[in-house]
Design goal:
The structure is a single chain. The protein is mainly alpha-helical. The chain has one domain. The longest helix is centred in the N-terminal third of the chain and has 59 residues. The radius of gyration is 27 Å and the shape is elongated. The mean pLDDT is about 80.
Length: about 200
C-alpha cells in the first residue's frame, strides 16, 4: 500500500472514530438529561399530588366562607384558601424551573450556575413553606371547627387549643424535617448527575 493510500485510510478511520465519539457523547448527554428529568420528576410527582389535594380542598372550602360570620373567622377562611392555592402553585413553579433546565444546550459551567440558582430558590421556598405551615396549622383550626361543627373556637370553652395545636405542631415539625431532608437528597442527586457531564466536557 502506498503512503498516500495509507494516509487516506488513516484519515478516514480518524474521521469515523471522531464521528463515533461525537455520537457517543451526544447519547451520554441525552441519557444524562433524561436521568436528571426523572430525578426532578420525583419532586413534581409528589408535589403535584399534594397540589391537587390542596386545590380540591380550596374549591370545597370557598362556598363554606359564607358560614364565617365574624371578621376573624372570615380572615382565617380567606387565609386558608389562599394558602391552599398560592403555596402549592409557587412550589410547582419552582420545580418546573428545575425540570426545564436544558442539559443539551448549556455548557457544563452554565448548567451548574443555572441549577445552583434554581436549586437555592426551590429550597428557600421549601423553608418558607415550612414556616407558613405552622401559621396555617393555627389559622385553619377555627375554620375547620366552624365548617364541620358550626362552632366558634374563640367563643367555645373547650380546651382543644391546649392539646391539638401542640400535638400537631410536634408532628408537623418532625414531618417537615423529614420531608425537607428528602428533598435535599433529591436535589443533591440531581446535582451529581449534572456533575457527570464535566468528564465529557474535558474530552
Amino acid at each position: 500500500m502506498e503512503l498516500q493510500e495509507m494516509q487516506a485510510t488513516w484519515t478516514q478511520m480518524s474521521q469515523e472514530l471522531e464521528k463515533q465519539k461525537t455520537l457517543t457523547n451526544e447519547l451520554i448527554i441525552e441519557m444524562t438529561h433524561q436521568r436528571y428529568r426523572n430525578k426532578i420528576g420525583i419532586l413534581s410527582n409528589y408535589e403535584g399530588l399534594c397540589a391537587i389535594i390542596c386545590f380540591i380542598d380550596a374549591l370545597l372550602l370557598i362556598p363554606q366562607l359564607q358560614k364565617m360570620d365574624t371578621w376573624y373567622l372570615l380572615a382565617s377562611g380567606i387565609f386558608t384558601v389562599g394558602y391552599l392555592v398560592i403555596l402549592p402553585a409557587i412550589v410547582l413553579y419552582s420545580i418546573y424551573k428545575l425540570k426545564t433546565i436544558d442539559v443539551l444546550k448549556n455548557s457544563y459551567r452554565e448548567l451548574l450556575v443555572v441549577y445552583a440558582k434554581r436549586k437555592k430558590r426551590f429550597l428557600q421556598i421549601q423553608q418558607i413553606g415550612i414556616g407558613i405551615n405552622f401559621i396555617f396549622l393555627a389559622v385553619s383550626l377555627p375554620v375547620v371547627l366552624k365548617v364541620f361543627k358550626d362552632k366558634d373556637l374563640f367563643m367555645d370553652d373547650s380546651n382543644i387549643l391546649l392539646w391539638y395545636v401542640p400535638i400537631m405542631a410536634i408532628f408537623l415539625f418532625l414531618f417537615s424535617r423529614w420531608g425537607y431532608g428528602k428533598y435535599k437528597n433529591v436535589v443533591a442527586s440531581a446535582n451529581s448527575i449534572l456533575e457527570e457531564l464535566e468528564e465529557k466536557e474535558r474530552f
